[in-house]
Amino acid sequence: MAADSVRALVGGGEAGHSTPGLVLAALSLVIMPFLSHAQRRAGRELGSASAVADSKQTLLCTYLSGVLLVGLAVNSLFGWTWADPVAALVIAAVAVKEGREAWRGDTCCAVPAAAGSTAAAAATGADADCLSCPPGCVCCS
Questions:
Q1: Which has the closest alpha carbon to 29: 72, 53, 52, 59?
Q2: 3-state class of 129 per DSSP?
Q3: Count of C-beta atoms within a 10 Å radius of residue 107
Q4: Measured between alpha carbons, how far is 71 from 74 in angstroms, rounded to an integer?
């Protein structure tokens, strides 16, 4: 993907209009946040760290669908053929970042919650599953 994007940017080809791409990206942008929320809720209820982590990846897919939609729309509306390969490079950069974090074993928060966290959560008004999460943690929002 990255090599094709660079080749397109230096004049090796141009991306064309893609109505199916626009429709699929728009549908993903609408559906994925709901799917992510449902996965996160189910993962918390089941005490499944992998389901919660998967919900984070689904939410990331939402953001990537937004980048894709912008690239395709700008290309289609204004004829800026560089927008599609630039969007692809952004997506590739995010994929590399996420892959490196996964390789290092970086996690968002501990699931299931530690014993006694329910009382602490009730006292602070926080979600019991997310007391160990860093600020801005996607799986706790």
A1: 59
A2: helix
A3: 17
A4: 5
| Digit-coded pLDDT (tens) for 82-140 | 888 888 888 888 888 877 877 877 655 544 444 444 444 444 444 555 545 555 555 55
Compute the distance between CA of residue 84 and CA of residue 11 in angstroms, rounded to an integer. Answer: 13
- For 29, the token pair is 């942008």
- The whole-model pTM stands at 0.63
Residue where the block lists tokens 């204004």: 78
Provide the sign of the torsion angle of the four alpha carbons 69, 70, 76, 82, taken in this order: negative
Q: Are 40 and 52 a contacting pair, CB within 8 Å?
A: yes
Cis peptide before 134 (omega within 30 of 0): no
